[in-house]
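stage 2 :: seqdesign
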C-alpha cells in the first residue's frame, strides 16, 4: 500500500504479512511511485524575455534579436518597438553594437532645424 502526501513523496506502509506462508518478506510487497510535481502543475514551458525598448516581458516568439547585441545588453525587442525607435532617431543603426537593425527596418528622415514646414494656406 502506498500513501501519497501533498508533496508527492510516497510514504511506504508495511503490508500486513502476519500469518503469510508464501515465504515473501514485507520488502517484496513495497511499491515506490515517483511523481514529478513540476510537470503535474501544468507549468508552461514558454520562454519569456524583456523587450529592451519598452521593457515589457513577452514570449520569446513575439520578440526579435534585430542586431548583434547579446547577453546583458538585452538583445530582444518587439519589432514595432525597434521600428518606432528607428523612426524617432532617423536611422536603423544600433547605438550599442553599431550594426544595422535586420531584417527590413526603415527610418523616417529627420528634419533639420532649418527645414521648417511652411503653411501656404
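stage 2 :: out
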Amino acid at each position: 500500500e502506498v500513501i501519497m502526501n501533498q508533496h508527492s513523496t510516497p510514504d511506504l506502509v508495511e503490508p500486513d504479512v502476519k500469518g503469510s506462508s508464501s515465504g515473501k518478506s514485507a520488502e517484496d510487497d513495497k511499491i515506490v511511485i515517483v511523481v514529478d510535481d513540476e510537470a503535474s502543475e501544468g507549468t508552461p514551458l514558454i520562454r519569456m524575455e524583456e523587450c529592451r525598448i519598452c521593457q515589457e516581458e513577452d514570449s520569446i516568439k513575439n520578440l526579435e534579436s534585430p542586431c548583434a547585441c547579446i547577453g546583458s545588453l538585452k538583445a530582444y525587442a518587439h519589432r514595432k518597438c525597434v521600428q518606432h525607435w528607428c523612426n524617432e532617431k532617423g536611422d536603423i543603426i544600433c547605438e550599442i553594437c553599431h550594426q544595422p537593425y535586420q531584417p527590413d527596418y526603415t527610418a523616417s528622415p529627420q528634419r533639420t532645424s532649418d527645414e521648417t514646414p511652411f503653411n501656404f494656406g
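stage 3 :: structure notes
- The radius of gyration is 31 Å.
- The longest strand covers residues 2-4.
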